[in-house]
Amino acid sequence: MRTLNRATLIALAAASALAAAACNTVAGAGRDIENAGEAVTDAAEETEEELKDGTP
After folding, report:
1. What is the residue-level pLDDT of the chain in tens, covering all 56 positions?
2. Alpha carbon distances (Å) from 34 to 2, 20, 45, 48, 52
3. I need a labelling partner for 55 at 20 to 30 A (CA). Which of 7, 24, 34, 49 fits?
4. Where are the domains of the chain?
């Protein structure tokens, strides 16, 4: 019985560590995607202004 409890504890600890790592990875990817989207938006707005002003 003691071995089962220790094995269960180790499994839960490993699952918790994996879940925490996955959350950080997803959050980081979300920030990267958001930053890329903002960069595209900024570039599009600059291009739009240049087209309105007639500047190359």
Report:
1. 466 788 888 898 998 888 888 888 888 888 899 999 999 999 999 999 888 988 66
2. 48, 21, 16, 21, 27
3. 34
4. 20-51
Token reading at 17: 């560590």
Q: How many residues does the chain have?
A: 56
pTM score over 0.90:
no
Tokens describing residue 52: 């309105």
Q: Which pair of tokens denotes residue 7? A: 């094995």
Angle at 35 between CA 32 and CA 41, to 5 degrees: 145
